[in-house]
C-alpha cells in the first residue's frame, strides 16, 4: 500500500473502497504508485508457487519452493481483445534474498522493502510453522509479489538494471549481480556496531529515528502476540459452538413437535463453528501486513547504521588530520606537548638535523593536504547521505502512515463483519426456536 504526494495514478490490488460492503469479505493486499516508468510499461505478478525436489550445493537431496514471476506489457486492451501472453520465470526465495542484499549494499540511503518471513512467526496453535505448508507458501507468494511491487513503485529502485534482469533473465541474472562486486562492499555488522557505540556526535534526527524504529518494532511485536492469543481463544470459542449443534441434533431425535426446529438450529450452530477457519485465515493476511512493517523497522535501522558509520569515518578523518597538524606544530617549534615515542627518541638520541626536519615537514605537509581532502570528501559524503536518506525517509513515513491506517481500518471492518455473522446465526436460531 504505497501512496506518495503528487501521485495521480494509483494501482490497487484488492478492494480498498472503505465504503463498500464487499470490503468486509475481501483482503487488502497492497497499493502501489503507478508513477514510476517501470510500472507504467510493465505488469508484475508472482502467479503461483511450486514445490520441487533437487540436490543442493553439497549434493544432498532437498525439497524447496519456487515462485513463478510473470511480467507483461501494461497496455490497454481493446474490448473483446486478448492480453499479451506474459513472460515467465521461476525464482527461489534465496534468489529474492540475494537480490535484496544487493539493493541494501547498492542503495544504503534507501529504506529497502522487506521480504516476507522465511519461517512463520507469531503463530497460534492451529497454524503450521512448516515453511512448506500450502497456506504459508501462499501467504509468502503474496508477500513476494508485494516486495516486487514495492521495488517497482520506488522512484529510484525501479530504474535499477539488476531489478529488470531479475524479472526477465532467469539464467544469467545471478552471474550478473555477483559481477557487480556488491558483496565486497558489504559493511561488516561488527564495524557498524563499533561505529554506533564510538561515534561522538551522532545526528539527532537519525538518533530519534533509530529510537522510533525500536519502539515501533516493540509495539508491532506486542500486537502480533496479542492477536495470536486472541486467535487461539476465538478458535476454541467457535469450535465449542459445534457442541450446541451436536446437542440440538440429539435433542431433536427425542422430540416430535420441536424436532425440526432443534435440528435446524443445530445446523446453524455447526455452520457458525466451521466459519472460524476462513475467518482466521483471512486474519493472517492482515497479520502479514503488520509483519511487513515489523521487518521494515530493521530496514530503517540499516539506514541509521550506515549514517553512524559515515559519521564515524568523518570523525576519524578529522581526528587524524588534527594529529598530523599537531605533529607539524611540534616539529616546527621543537616542543613535544604530550608524552610520545618522538619525545623519548629526542631525549635519547638528540635533536634531528635541519635536513631531516625539513624532509619530515614536507612529508607532513603532503599528509595534511591529503587529510584535508579526506575530511572534505567525508563531509560531502555525509551531507549527501543525509539529504538523500532523509528524502526517502519522508517518502517511507507517508507510505507507512497510509498503509497502517488502511490495514487497521480494514481489520476493524472484518471484525465487525464477523460479529454481524454471529448475530445472524443466533437470529436464525431464534427463528427456528419460534417455529417449534
Automatic annotation (TrEMBL):
The keyword Transport applies. Pfam families: PX. It comes from the Eukaryota. One of its GO terms (cellular component) is SNARE complex. GO terms for biological process: positive regulation of autophagosome assembly; protein transport. Residues 45-174 form the PX domain. PROSITE patterns: PX. Keywords: Protein transport, Transport. GO terms for molecular function: phosphatidylinositol-3-phosphate binding. SUPFAM superfamilies: PX domain. Belongs to the sorting nexin family. This is PX domain-containing protein.
Amino acid at each position: 500500500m504505497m501512496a506518495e504526494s503528487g501521485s495521480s495514478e494509483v494501482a490497487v490490488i484488492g478492494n480498498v473502497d472503505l465504503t463498500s460492503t464487499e470490503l468486509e469479505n475481501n483482503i487488502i493486499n497492497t497499493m502501489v504508485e503507478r508513477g514510476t516508468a517501470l510500472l507504467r510499461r510493465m505488469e508484475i505478478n508472482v502467479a503461483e508457487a511450486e514445490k520441487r525436489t533437487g540436490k543442493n550445493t553439497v549434493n544432498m537431496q532437498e525439497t524447496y519452493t519456487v515462485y513463478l514471476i510473470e511480467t507483461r506489457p501494461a497496455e490497454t486492451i481493446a474490448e473483446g481483445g486478448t492480453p499479451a501472453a506474459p513472460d515467465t520465470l521461476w525464482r527461489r526465495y534465496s534468489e529474492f534474498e540475494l537480490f535484496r542484499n544487493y539493493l541494501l549494499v547498492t542503495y544504503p540511503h534507501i529504506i529497502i522493502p522487506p521480504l516476507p518471513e522465511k519461517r512463520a512467526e507469531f503463530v497460534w496453535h492451529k497454524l503450521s510453522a512448516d515453511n512448506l505448508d500450502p497456506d504459508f507458501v501462499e501467504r509468502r507468494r503474496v508477500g513476494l509479489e508485494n516486495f516486487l511491487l514495492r521495488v517497482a513503485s520506488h522512484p529510484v529502485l525501479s530504474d535499477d538494471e539488476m531489478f529488470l534482469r531479475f524479472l526477465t533473465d532467469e539464467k544469467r541474472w545471478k552471474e550478473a549481480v555477483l559481477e557487480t562486486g556488491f558483496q565486497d562492499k558489504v559493511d561488516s555488522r561488527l564495524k557498524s556496531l563499533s561505529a554506533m557505540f564510538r561515534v561522538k556526535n551522532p545526528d539527532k534526527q537519525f538518533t530519534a529515528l533509530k529510537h522510533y524504529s525500536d519502539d515501533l518494532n516493540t509495539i508491532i511485536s506486542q500486537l502480533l502476540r496479542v492477536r495470536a492469543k486472541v486467535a487461539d481463544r476465538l478458535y476454541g470459542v467457535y469450535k465449542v459452538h459445534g457442541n450446541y449443534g451436536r446437542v440440538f441434533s440429539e435433542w431433536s431425535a427425542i422430540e416430535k413437535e420441536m424436532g425440526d426446529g432443534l435440528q435446524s438450529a443445530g445446523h446453524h450452530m455447526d455452520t457458525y463453528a466451521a466459519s472460524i477457519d476462513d475467518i482466521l485465515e483471512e486474519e493472517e493476511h492482515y497479520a502479514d501486513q503488520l509483519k511487513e512493517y515489523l521487518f521494515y523497522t530493521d530496514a530503517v535501522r540499516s539506514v541509521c547504521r550506515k549514517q553512524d558509520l559515515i559519521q564515524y569515518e568523518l570523525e576519524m578523518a578529522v581526528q587524524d588530520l588534527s594529529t598530523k597538524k599537531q605533529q607539524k606544530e611540534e616539529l616546527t617549534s621543537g616542543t613535544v606537548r604530550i608524552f610520545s615515542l618522538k619525545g623519548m627518541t629526542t631525549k635519547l638520541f638528540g635533536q634531528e638535523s635541519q635536513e631531516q626536519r625539513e624532509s619530515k615537514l614536507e612529508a607532513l605537509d603532503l599528509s595534511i593536504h591529503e587529510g584535508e581532502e579526506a575530511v572534505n570528501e567525508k563531509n560531502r559524503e555525509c551531507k549527501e547521505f543525509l539529504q538523500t536518506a532523509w528524502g526517502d525517509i519522508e517518502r517511507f513515513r507517508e507510505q507507512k502512515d497510509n498503509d497502517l491506517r488502511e490495514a487497521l481500518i480494514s481489520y476493524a471492518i472484518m471484525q465487525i463483519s464477523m460479529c454481524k455473522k454471529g448475530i445472524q446465526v443466533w437470529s436464525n436460531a431464534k427463528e427456528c426456536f419460534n417455529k417449534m
